[in-house]
Write a structure and sequence with these properties.
This protein is mainly β. It is built from no helices and ten strands. A hairpin with a 2-residue loop joins strand 1 and strand 2.
């Protein structure tokens, strides 16, 4: 099922697809990885991944970074609209929710 939508990149350096947030950064650190999967769903097994365009994924101390080398790259997921990312460097973050009763934060599961 094609869920391609409009370019949801906000133009201000932040994009979100489900529980994954991409924040534009000035530089990337870390070791280059041999895949382009930004996150895998714990519940569904679906994944957020670059499927078109030229990009590289890096990891530094548990944090992922994405370098888009081509003019644009497509970030896809089976349950979300495609995001068209511009050329540049991004830090990958995960959405967290806070349980005020338990006084703890946990990662949102996609």
């Amino acid at each position: 099922m094609d869920q391609r939508g409009d370019n949801v990149w906000n133009g201000k350096g932040i994009a979100q697809q489900g529980d994954v947030i991409l924040v534009k950064v000035l530089e990337i650190k870390g070791k280059k990885l041999n895949h382009l999967v930004l996150a895998e769903g714990e519940l569904t097994g679906h994944c957020h991944q670059i499927t078109k365009g030229d990009a590289e994924l890096y990891e530094h101390e548990g944090t992922l970074f994405l370098k888009v080398l081509s003019k644009t790259a497509e970030l896809t997921h089976q349950e979300h609209k495609t995001i068209i990312l511009p050329k540049g460097d991004f830090e990958i973050k995960r959405v967290r929710e806070y349980d005020h009763f338990a006084e703890e934060a946990k990662r949102v599961q996609d």
